[in-house]
Task: inverse folding
């Protein structure tokens, strides 16, 4: 039961019940998609890239469990207004939370990421937490660098 | 055969060592037999004994153990033949699973009889393993896969079925019982209708064999497949029943040892009967385990098993129905003991994780039946599937744990 309380923290229940930045944004310049073939859940992530290569707006849509919806909701809050490069490094940070036991104590990791640390006790559910981040990463990968004439993946 | 006059579920539970386990410190409520069933001592012993006392490869040695092992392996084939009431052991092919059995038919029968412009008729109730192999064949030869729709209760639309049997239909492949929502299809009638147009039929019996007695001759099935692990046998063993007249004409599926008559580099001639389709060393001990599992269920008797499971099904349907915000998916006229449901605003994955902490094991997800989930417009459901060892306490534990979920998300 303690593990459950740790998994479904107040903040997660809150974000899953009233997800922030839910819905397709318009105009939208980039989108990414994440599938969990195990459960059939899907998340679509929409971005609008601003003049200065920041994520001017972020939105998501999808069907998913409390964990994936809360993770998506908190993620959109986190990356909205940041630069592409920042968003990418946050994605990497988020992944290390589940692969590296010491990451939890890193002070530069936002609490909205750490809130999901409870899924570590439920290995089958780690994918639920990372699904929206993979969708974000897919969207970011579609972004072409501005000062590069050629098409190039990533920021 | 039937040496048990009254069905005693507690005695049956005693046959399954898994029920001695505590899960997160709680009593195990195992409602996931539809995915794979637990194993009784009779099967565990048969497997152990085979490895300890009689093990050797089959069909190739003249020594004592090889003969003994062959006798047991072929004995299991006879047990399966008798159980399905097939005419001959040559009609019983051991595979590794339902999946392999369907792939065998799709490839071998497909190569023989399905060509460009032809149609393969499935239904909306199929497991992915009775969809994808046909799509692969269809793509290869330029045929089309069609699916008979269902109504919202989960019953097959019979008039649509008849309309969809056309001159181009080369095979019908349909499930006996839906793994996702429990619908029992009227397969005997479906087969008769197809036969009236000379179309052969494959029945996926994966979810039927654990719950009911199947007589392939009475059904007049051309192919009937099932997987051992759902009927209390080990994994790695499945069965393809095929009518001899079809199997004789079909080309081999895989090549290798045991399936040949004579091999030269210029030309190989193939073995006949079931051997033609059993290339390589077969799952010997798994087959022996399957034989033991079939003997076990027959000793209890399918009349008793079915009656017990049906009473659990109605009790579960009734008790879950009393809860708020529960939607039961699939209310077919005739159902096997499978209850699929969703809850308003609470995702099946969250339900599964939470009730697991109460020791309740259910399957959550799309049940390898995504077209069916799309039909009901849900990404996934919670599925409680019952077997002969479940009891009323299991239903009560499920219902209590669902209340806990509601509490959690309030
Ligand atoms: C109806 C049905 N068909 C086919 C299968 C596939 O069985 P297996 O994975 O053992 O090949 C299953 C089980 O998952 C099933 O329920």
Result:
């Amino acid at each position: 039961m303690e593990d459950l309380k740790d998994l479904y923290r107040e903040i997660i229940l809150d974000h899953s019940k009233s997800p922030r930045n839910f819905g397709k944004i318009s105009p939208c310049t980039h989108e990414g998609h994440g599938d969990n073939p195990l459960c059939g859940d899907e998340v679509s992530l929409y971005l609008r890239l601003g003049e200065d290569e920041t994520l001017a707006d972020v939105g998501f849509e999808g069907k998913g469990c409390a964990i994936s919806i809360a993770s998506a909701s908190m993620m959109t809050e986190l990356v909205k207004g940041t630069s592409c490069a920042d968003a990418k490094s946050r994605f990497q940070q988020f992944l290390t939370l589940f692969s590296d036991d010491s990451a939890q104590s890193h002070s530069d990791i936002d609490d909205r990421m750490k809130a999901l640390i409870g899924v570590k006790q439920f290995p089958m559910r780690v994918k639920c937490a990372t699904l929206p981040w993979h969708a974000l990463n897919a969207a970011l990968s579609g972004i072409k660098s501005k000062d590069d004439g050629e098409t190039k993946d990533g920021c | 055969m039937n040496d048990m006059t009254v069905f005693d579920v507690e005695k049956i539970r005693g046959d399954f060592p898994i029920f001695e386990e505590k899960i997160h410190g709680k009593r195990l409520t195992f409602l996931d037999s539809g995915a794979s069933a637990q194993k009784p001592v009779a099967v565990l012993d048969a497997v152990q004994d085979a490895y300890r006392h009689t093990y050797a490869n089959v069909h190739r040695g003249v020594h004592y153990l090889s003969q003994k092992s062959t006798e047991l392996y072929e004995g299991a084939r006879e047990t399966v033949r008798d159980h399905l009431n097939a005419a001959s052991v040559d009609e019983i092919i051991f595979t590794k699973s339902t999946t392999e059995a369907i792939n065998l038919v799709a490839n071998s029968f497909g190569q023989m009889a399905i060509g460009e412009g032809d149609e393969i008729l499935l239904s909306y109730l199929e497991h992915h393993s009775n969809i994808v192999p046909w799509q692969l064949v269809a793509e290869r030869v330029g045929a089309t896969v069609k699916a008979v729709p269902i109504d919202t209760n989960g019953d097959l639309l019979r008039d649509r079925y008849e309309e969809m049997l056309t001159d181009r239909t080369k095979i019908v492949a349909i499930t006996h019982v839906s793994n996702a929502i429990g619908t029992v299809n009227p397969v005997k009638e479906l087969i008769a209708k197809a036969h009236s147009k000379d179309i052969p039929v494959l029945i996926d019996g994966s979810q039927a064999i654990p719950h009911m007695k199947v007589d392939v001759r009475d059904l007049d099935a051309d192919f009937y497949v099932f997987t051992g692990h759902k009927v209390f046998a080990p994994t790695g063993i499945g069965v393809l029943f095929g009518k001899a007249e079809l199997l004789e004409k079909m080309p081999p599926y895989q090549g290798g040892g045991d399936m040949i008559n004579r091999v030269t580099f210029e030309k190989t001639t193939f073995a006949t009967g079931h051997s033609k389709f059993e290339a390589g060393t077969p799952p010997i001990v798994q087959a022996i385990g399957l034989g033991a599992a079939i003997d076990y269920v027959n000793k209890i008797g399918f009349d008793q098993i079915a009656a017990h499971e049906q009473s659990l099904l109605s009790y579960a349907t009734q008790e879950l129905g009393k809860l708020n915000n529960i939607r039961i998916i699939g209310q077919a006229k005739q159902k096997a003991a499978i209850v699929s449901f969703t809850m308003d605003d609470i995702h099946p994955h969250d339900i599964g994780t939470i009730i697991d902490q109460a020791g309740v094991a259910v399957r959550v997800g799309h049940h390898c039946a995504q077209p069916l989930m799309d039909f009901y417009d849900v990404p996934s459901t919670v599925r409680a599937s019952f077997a002969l060892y479940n009891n009323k306490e299991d239903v009560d534990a499920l219902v209590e744990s669902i209340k806990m979920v509601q509490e959690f998300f309030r």
Summary: Chain B has a mean pLDDT of 96.
